[in-house]
Design brief:
The protein is an alpha/beta fold. It has one domain: Dihydropteroate synthase-like (TIM Barrel). Helix content is 45%, strand content 12%.
Length: 233
């Protein structure tokens, strides 16, 4: 059963209040306009919309806010992830055309590029078969170069990993970490994960081997999905 906007506000309010009081950047993930307004009014640092902010009637309000926007692509466009087989080439082309159009609309409304983060979507957001998700992960460098914006990915525990390995959610940690490390090596800017400790340790080792430094964003999303984000630069 879908959680109502009223219930979401009731759950979010004390969490946002406590985290912001502690100086922790807060991210809220919701496609409901009421929740997006609720979150921006409370000064969240990030707002994530799995539909990619499709409603132009909200653009003036989003432009007036200060939070960064995670613009996510999905093949569904207008609803939650569904199990449908897709062609990876068509999905990849759709990712490009979606961001071309949506980013132009958001920037035309006065939302500066410094506030935008793009997420190609993974798992059922791209299709029930694993190939589109693999193509999206392989194309991170291309997305960054084409659009000149930070990229966020969320492979953690996704269906395509379980399809490839035959493992259940409880045993998807190694596959998740492999996908996350590939994304990090490709220069992804944000990784949304369930196992923050494992990813943090893995990035520490990856950076030590590569002789690089890693900066991580404290805190993470609140609300329905409390997976944390790690930021690389």
């Amino acid at each position: 059963m879908r959680v109502t906007a009223a219930d979401q506000r009731r759950r979010l309010a004390p969490v946002i209040e406590q985290l912001t009081a502690d100086g922790v950047p807060v991210s809220v993930d919701s496609f409901l306009p009421d929740i997006q307004r609720f979150a921006t009014a409370r000064g969240v640092a990030y707002l994530n919309d799995i539909r990619g902010f499709p409603d132009p009637t909200l653009y003036d309000e989003l432009a007036a806010a200060s939070c960064r926007l995670v613009v996510m692509h999905s093949v569904q466009r207008d609803g939650p992830a569904t199990k449908v087989a897709t062609d990876p080439a068509a999905v990849w082309a759709g990712i490009g055309s979606f961001f071309t159009d949506r980013l132009a609309a958001l920037q035309a409304a006065g939302i500066g590029p410094e506030r935008l983060i793009i997420d190609p979507g993974l798992g059922y957001f791209l299709g029930s078969n694993p190939e589109p998700s693999l193509a999206a992960l392989a194309g991170i460098r291309h997305l960054k170069a084409r659009f000149g914006l930070p990229v966020l990915v969320s492979p953690s525990r996704k269906s395509f990993l379980r399809t490839l390995t035959g493992r259940g959610i409880a045993d998807s940690g190694p596959a998740t970490l492999a996908a996350e490390l590939h994304a990090a090596w490709q220069g992804v800017d944000y990784i949304r994960t369930h196992d923050v400790s494992a990813l943090s340790d893995a990035l520490t080792i990856l950076d030590a081997i590569a002789g690089r430094t890693c900066r991580r964003l404290p805190g993470g999303p609140t609300g329905e999905d409390r997976a944390d984000r790690s930021e690389r630069s």
